[in-house]
Amino acid sequence: MNGAGAKGGTTVRDALRGWGGVTAMAVVCALVALVALCLPPLTTTARNTTATTYTAGTEAEEDCEAPEKQTLAPSSTDGDTIRAIKNRTGEKRKLVVGVDQNSYRWGYRNPNSGKTAELEGFDIDLVHRIAEDILGDPDAVQFKAIPTDQRIPAIQDGRVDMVVRTMTINCDRIGDVAFSAPYFKTGQQVLAPKSSPIEGYDDTLADRRICTAAGSTAFAALEADQKDGKLPAGTDISTTVPNQLDCLVRLQLGEVDAVVTDGALAASQAAQDPTVQLKGDAFTAEYYGVAMKKSADDLVRRVNQILVDYRKDTENGWQASYEKWLSATLGKDAKKSEPPAPQYLRTT
Questions:
Q1: Residue 178 pairs with which residues in a beta bridge?
Q2: Which secondary-structure segment (H or E) carries 133?
Q3: pTM exceeding 0.85
Q4: Mean pLDDT over residues 57-62, rounded?
Q5: What tens digit of pLDDT does each residue of 103-115 get?
Q6: Which one of 94, 152, 163, 305 is most buried, by most CB atoms within 10 A?
């Protein structure tokens, strides 16, 4: 299959010839794949061999507005869910959290962190903060690697207590899982080779092949926009992958012409591969939240209280984590990525 050059541009493989040909390609692919493939694996949840479709419940009707506000007010009170977590004994007395291990600066294995190559990143910092508050130990966590398309099944099946994995709060998902208040603001963007004629989310995507993660808000946006005529009918959106990072590899190999994903993730991927860049502005406004079971009201409230305290903590909180992990790729101005003051459901 031809790459981006199929329409007059240059494939990533061709572009790479300018800085070392096959050797350079190996360097870039190794940089990306090192985290995902070459390091010791953490616990991985079982995946279904067939795709699973979840239908939103009555709380995700078509008239859903501001899904990021559909969460419960903060509370530090222990309920049944938190008591069950605290009552775990021995090695099992840990918070079980679904995360990514392949997203650079969000949740990834750092090969320079020692023999164990521990998970690091912005999402991982938040997980440690939650574990410290609930169990009194920031390291009382069992991490489980969750593919993008398995985040909701992992929660509903009880394989994890929560998912902290750059998961966008939207109307469909609030019918399936409960979300915390937002902890990060982002939006969908296009990632393509620097040499590509693609300019952004516009007509330059006509007859191009786009990769998205299965079950992602990116794919949902593309599918809806193509039906509404906002995306050229000839744009091929059929390429979906279990994990977002797989799209970058497809792009490097010339199998697709562009990637659409959250701008926060796309910026990290551009930092991994100097031959690609963000094209155009974000075309959506979205918020990441911590996802939990629909029935886990006490855990949702507790996480919301933790987020309030986390954002207020000027030394070891949200701002410090942003500066450590994300300022290099998203810029020094953290306000652009900080969500607005949370709003909660009114309950009687």
A1: 292
A2: helix 122-135
A3: no
A4: 42
A5: 999 999 887 776 6
A6: 163
